[in-house]
Amino acid sequence: MTAPSQVIPVPPADLPGTLGELRAAGHRPRTVKQELRDSLLARLRSGVERFPGIVGYHDTVLPEVERALLAGHDMVLLGERGQGKTRLIRSLVGLLDEWTPVIAGSVLNEDPLHPLTPASRALVAEAGDDLPVGWLHRSMRYGEKLATPDTSVGDLIGDVDPIRIAQGRTLGDPDTIHFGLVPRTNRGIFAVNELPDLAERIQVALLNVLEERDIQVRGYQLRLPLDLFLVASANPEDYTNRGRIITPLKDRFGAEIRTHYPVDLELELALIRQEAELVAEVPEHVLEVLARFARAVRESPSVDPRSGVSARFAIAAAETVAAAALRRAGLLAAGFAPGAGDAAVRPEAPVARVGDAVPVTSTLRGKVEFESGEEGREIEILGHLLRTATAETFRARLAGLDLSGFTALVDEGRTVETGELVSSAELLRQVGTVPGLAKALDRLGLGDAPSPEQAAAGVEFVLEGLHLTRRLGKDVTDSGRTRYGGRA
């Protein structure tokens, strides 16, 4: 994907600098849709990844997007929040040519061989082959507008420029027009996010852009054959209740493509790994718990299915868990936590544990819209779903393994304490040598020689899993520590 950048790329010095040089180089103009089609075909034939960074759509959404691009259809992506619609739209920029020739100084990015405005045509006629040619990088050929209620026709299409009128020009002069975002993205890709939120009378202004490929500004006798690929995103209308895409505009989009959340656990995990910016190590089994948790919330009857549960929920959960591990390491190193023990000698490395996920139910509840009858029970519901996800991960990872060595730890009234501010050294001292520990850590993907922090993360997960499967009791002390002991 070509990311938006504040730094304008500098074109290579060997590109043609005048219209005559451009002709001599054999330049052949292509429309935006032809560029997209040719580039996509080249990637299909070579086996190169067509849409880098897009996870979970390879067998569902992307084939539909590719068919729309090959057909030259403008498209609208329809789906709940957090399904990567904007990410997918922005990735289309990578299919454009890296450098495109334009008339130097042209507001509308006009092709030197096909000028649009009267002023540019006159300039080409006057300068001839000496006309200066500029080069536009593909990252500068993408325009995007978030549809908001205050968006006007002038913002999108254009309006009369009062300053130019004040300079003495007449209202009939095309040079008095200040072009909006859509024509300024001529020869590029223009995206409208959350299209239903655009007022219906403003949506009408896009009808000509999609069908006749031209614009109208305040009654001017002006026809500019724009070269655009128009793409929009929208939430399902039955959820937003704030607006709709008017029927004539819907009819002008060549393709309506439904997006979705990751269809299976592995794709959910891949998305978290790719997108989460983790400030500490988060073991694979903890990431799996969070992925299962997000999917459980999404499927819960207590959650409004029309709103969806964004992929950002699981990503933010992973980042929060990593932050909790980093906080623990900082506090233990500072000696703030009772029983820090060896932390003064060997600093605690930040490694997340399953217990670090508990605060997520409070900090992320605002990302979930619950059914009206569940008011006041939000944290309780999320807590239950988190425990369910942990138990499922425990069964998936450690099924069939002899864990009697862990249950034997609490025989004769003994307990094992862990918690947010319990160091790995302290936890491992309580556990000691446990039969089956090495196999459990191996099943959890922690390797043959895990660090003390990784081993502690594995031990805490096993203890929590045994509790959730009713093989160990659990109690939370007033100091916030978690005490495992006795039979459930």
Automatic annotation (TrEMBL):
One of the record's GO molecular function terms: protein kinase activity
Species whose genome carries this gene: Micromonospora deserti
Protein name from the UniProt record: Magnesium chelatase
PANTHER family with a match to the protein in the record: PROTEIN KINASE PRKA (PTHR30267), PROTEIN PRKA (PTHR30267:SF2)
